[in-house]
Design a protein that fits this description.
By secondary structure, this protein is α/β, with parallel strands linked by helices. Helices cover about 45% and strands about 15% of the residues. It is globular, with a radius of gyration of 19 Å.
């Protein structure tokens, strides 16, 4: 059976989409301020002044709407009154500067500590999700098992289902090859320990590649006779994929670069974590 996971206590308010949006905007603004203070967000010079105040909040909200609602950049530009080129350029620039990854890492550490855990996990769970993609997408392949032409997103999550590493590739890439860049990202952030996956991650080549990075891949059976079995904490990655399935931009992939697809996955998890942290009870916050 699965290992019990004690989440942080949150208020009993029902889920509201705009809780996600408002909390997301506040966290992004905080991170932008921190990046400007430490010099990782250089000041951009140009003929037009940078967005500030309400206009900047509207731009961040627009990026969230693109991810959650699956809207086109031109459509959200018409609704906000901000040129779609400005919105897309902001998103691309922040992606290039690493804003989303940096913010997601900070929120993950904060949530783990609110749950009474250490900031860094000792075990991760790996898996992949195949999504259909448009012909204009950065890559395309056919997943023979799922009969889907599109893109495969591989992630590594900790026991609360929060991603530590994300990568994307054509759907025809086998899991044992597609997970290697994810393992490299884990090793780059200092992770050393077991990575639990399903039986698709068996193989001597993957085991040797992971061992060279200081990671032990543990393939385990997560089903029997067509019935899913919540073995250890392996089930949490399936829950993570169900969370981001709410975000329509991630159901049919149209991104022209892999970096932008990974960024939208990070935006989705930032949105989820921002709402959770905003709803923490006063006892958890003071702790």
């Amino acid at each position: 059976m699965g290992t019990a996971v004690r989440p942080a206590s949150t208020t009993s308010a029902s889920w509201d989409t705009f809780w996600d949006a408002d909390a997301f905007v506040d966290e992004v603004l905080s991170e932008l301020t921190a990046m400007a203070a430490d010099g990782s967000r250089p000041t951009r010079s140009g003929p037009k002044p940078a967005l500030t105040g309400a206009a900047l909040r509207n731009a961040i909200m627009a990026i969230w709407c693109v991810c959650f609602c699956g809207m086109q950049w031109r459509a959200i530009g018409q609704l906000t009154g901000i040129p779609f080129g400005t919105l897309y350029t902001l998103f691309a620039r922040w992606t290039r500067l690493g804003l989303w990854r940096r913010l997601l890492d900070r929120l993950c550490r904060t949530w783990r500590m609110a749950c009474g855990d250490t900031a860094e996990p000792s075990t991760v769970v790996i898996d992949s999700r195949t999504c259909p993609s448009a012909p204009s997408c950065f890559a395309r392949g056919v997943d023979g098992g799922k009969k889907i032409r599109g893109v495969k997103v591989s992630i590594a999550v900790e026991k609360y289902g929060l991603p530590l590493a994300i990568d994307a590739m054509p759907a025809n890439v086998h899991d044992t090859k597609g997970i290697v860049p994810v393992l490299r990202q884990l090793a780059g952030r200092g992770f050393q320990g077991p990575a639990i996956g399903d039986l698709g991650y068996r193989g001597e080549r993957l085991a040797k590649a992971a061992e060279a990075l200081g990671i032990t891949v543990r393939p385990i059976a997560r089903g029997r006779d067509g019935v899913f079995i919540p073995t250890e904490i392996a089930w949490v990655v399936e829950r993570s994929f169900s969370w981001i399935s709410r975000y329509r931009r991630l159901n049919t992939i149209v991104e022209r670069t892999k970096e932008h697809l990974v960024a939208f996955v990070e935006v989705a998890f930032i949105s989820i974590l921002s709402r959770r942290l905003k709803r923490l009870t006063p006892q958890e916050v003071s702790a």
